[in-house]
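The record is given unchanged here:
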Amino acid sequence: MIVILKKNPDEKQLKNLMGWLESMNISVHPTEGKTHTILGLVGDTSAVDIDLLRALDIVADVKRVQEPYKNANRKFHEDDTVIPVGQTQLGGGVFSVIAGPCSIESEEQICAVAQAVKASGATMLRGGAFKPRTSPYAFQGLRGHGLELLLKAKRMTGLPVVTEIMDLSQLELFDEVDVIQVGARNMQNFELLKELGHTGKPILIKRGLANTLQELLMSAEYVMAGGNHQVILCERGIRTFETATRNTLDLSAVPMLKKLTHLPVIVDPSHATGISWMVKPLAMAATACGADGLMIEVHNDPKSALCDGAQSLTPEAFDDVMQSVNAILPHAFKAPKEV
């Protein structure tokens, strides 16, 4: 349920209203928008008398929210969420590009790629230290040592870093990581999501291979229910009957999510297809349809990459993508956001 207050509500009346609602074990989340204040009510609101609420002097309207996700719902938070990360941000009209190798392989590799993507305009550096792989025999990352190398590249370039966590036991290693990524395979690892809800770090959640948008938003809700509202959503392709590409990139998810939620939405065109030459057109399309940013895999020697070389761009190819994306940005679609 949401309670829309009139402009400049009386503070004493507002305090009494919030106290009354909280006395019924309802959690109240106030959000100040540009034109009005919204109270988001989370909990069992079945006993709340809507007519009584509407009759209060400071109340403009009351609406029941049918969707199971509350904190992530744009009805609760009309304005776009802005998530500060280092010297940059995600959301709020700033287009973010997260770039770097699928896997961290050496200090030379990660530092060279970091310098190259920064020169081309990337705002954050990605790199995998812990890698979930379908085969138990495939390279699964340098783990703790990989994180150390990623942080060296961070100190060298000043770029905030994004890397994936796979298990709660790894959390203490992520103290200096700027954005913790929850991969597609862990999107519904609810115990992990709950724990990440108690951290003070931005959490980037990738859509699962066969998950709906509502399920993605419910995963975000798990993190937000723990008190951490710094959540970024990532569309990275879903599994369909099509076999020509690694996954099927669902770009319709971008405007739909922008309508449903206030959280930043980015797109990963690299994992979407698994084919490097397709990254550019899909990155351009993602930009045009209103994404808040991109996540792109870049490797200084893709043919020799230990993981996902086929979908990785060279630094030169990444620079070309950035030029095309920047040309599209002024004309990008803006999704309607009416509550």
